[in-house]
Design brief:
Layout lengths: L9 H14 L25 H4 L3 H8 L17 H18 L7 E6 L2 H19 L7 E6 L5 H8 L3 E5 L10 H13 L4 E7 L11 H10 L3 E8 L6 H4 L12 E7 L11 E6 L27 H39 L4 E2 L6 E5 L5 H6 L3 E2 L7 E5 L6 H12 L1
Parallel strand pairs: 2-3, 2-4, 4-5, 5-6
Antiparallel strand pairs: 1-7, 6-7, 8-9, 9-11, 10-11
Helix pairs in contact: 1-3, 1-4, 3-10, 4-10, 5-6, 7-8
Bound molecules: pyridoxal-5'-phosphate.
């Protein structure tokens, strides 16, 4: 059932990573004279073998492989072949085993984060519409919801595209079909013909999930061309495990690409955004002028640390797919438990039933409590909501302390 994702022991993981590092160039042992990079500064970073021999991730950091470019298509820099192979396997795990794509039918890379992965998607589709459909820049817009992450605004600003935000129904956080209709009619009146849709797989503030069919039906009704990207920066390592019947997978032909962030729910170090797209589209972000990079550069970021791919791969392999399901199952149970407590207190809150975010209306939470427990508001100047995110460290014992204060 899982094609790439197989649980491994610590020893197996260590052996695979060290073997991969052997296949990369070694700045210390080999005469590598032309790369503008080296191992990490040994005056600061301990390179003592007795310290590193059981530490595959730190060893990778110290050897400092560069994963510039995209390694699922064409050629890549041969210097870091070993760790590129691991990144490729990681992309396959995400594309095939988590997002139900067919083997060999997606490309992807590790971006700096969700922001970059979302911008990469919008960049690709803008160029796709302009190059393939002869669209004018002002005929293209980004379509997302009012709860979408602000990276869509960054993308709109950078790529000079207007961003249309669909209002949501306050209690359910669902897309308002009537408002969507109005927005599309307005966009058409402004001359828009092409929409880059970003659908949410768990929003930042509410953990809510957009219904892609609502977008598709409205876009078809208005006869607009579109491409759909799913922002799973928060939900990518969560929602596919709580909703077995999810429409947000590559099995849904309407969806073309995904963002997933390992540095959120997967507890990986920062710098582990993941961008995955159906084959045939990465080339719209190719920078042919990247002539000194073997295989050119299809990504927004340029140089990036190979240690990031190793970290995420190690996390997924150590847990294994069933360990991951159990981890998410526990978080779901804790979230359900917390919701029950809040219901008993008659608090008004939002929670998507497949999510681990609980968002409480601000009148039930004093500023002091929010501050004490690090509850994040939707808006620091004028909070309407505060959220609790049930992560690994957010245990029932800690939630009990919050409940004690909320009861007062
Ligand atoms: C839904 C969503 N998309 C995108 C992002 C941006 O991710 P990053 O901060 O990794 O750039 C976030 C961050 O919270 C997010 O929640």
């Amino acid at each position: 059932m899982y094609q790439f994702w197989k649980k491994k022991t610590g020893k197996e993981i260590k052996d695979i990573v060290f073997n991969a590092l052997e296949e990369n160039v070694n700045y210390e042992k080999q005469n590598i004279l032309g790369i503008p990079a080296s191992y990490l500064d040994d005056k600061i970073f301990n390179q003592d073998n007795s310290f590193l021999q059981d530490a595959p991730f730190i060893s990778t950091l110290i050897q400092n492989p560069n994963h510039i470019g995209c390694h699922t298509l064409g050629k890549s820099e041969p210097f870091f072949k070993g760790t590129h192979d691991i990144e490729r396997e990681l992309i396959n795990i995400c594309a095939v085993d988590i997002l139900k794509g067919k083997k060999g039918e997606q490309d992807g890379y590790l971006a700096s984060g969700g922001t970059e992965a979302n911008i990469q998607a919008i960049w690709i589709y803008r160029n796709y519409f302009m190059q393939e459909m002869n669209a004018r820049q002002d005929e293209i817009c980004v379509l997302c919801s009012e709860d979408s992450h602000y990276s869509m605004d960054k993308a709109g600003n950078l790529l000079t595209l207007s961003v249309k935000k669909v209002p949501l129904i306050d209690d359910s956080r669902k897309l308002s079909e009537t408002e969507l209709d109005v927005i599309l009619a307005q966009a058409q009146a402004e001359g828009k013909k092409y929409c880059i849709v970003v659908a949410n797989m768990m929003t930042t503030m509410f953990g809510s999930v957009d219904c892609v069919d609502t977008y598709v039906n409205a876009l078809k009704k208005h006869n607009l061309s579109y491409k759909i990207h799913v922002d799973g920066a928060f939900g990518g390592f969560y929602y596919p495990f709580t909703d077995q019947d999810s429409r947000l997978t590559f099995e849904n032909k309407e969806i073309n690409s995904f963002t997933l962030d390992a540095h959120k729910m997967a507890q990986a170090p920062y710098g582990t955004g993941i961008f995955i797209i159906r084959k045939g589209f990465m080339s719209f972000a190719n920078t042919k002028e990247a002539s000194y990079v073997e295989g050119e550069d299809f990504t927004l970021i340029g140089s990036r640390s190979g240690a990031n791919a190793i970290a995420v791969w190690m996390i997924l392999m150590k847990n294994g797919p069933f360990g991951w399901q159990e981890k998410i199952f526990i978080l779901q149970k804790r979230t359900e438990w917390m919701c029950e407590q809040l219901k008993e207190l008659n608090f008004d809150f939002y929670r998507h039933e497949k999510s681990n975010i609980i968002t409480i209306r601000s009148q039930f939470v004093t500023e002091g409590i929010a501050h004490k427990f690090g509850l994040v508001p939707d808006n620091h100047k004028q909070p309407n909501w505060y959220k609790i995110v049930i992560m690994d460290h957010v245990t029932i014992e800690k939630l009990l302390l919050l409940l004690e204060d909320l009861r007062k």
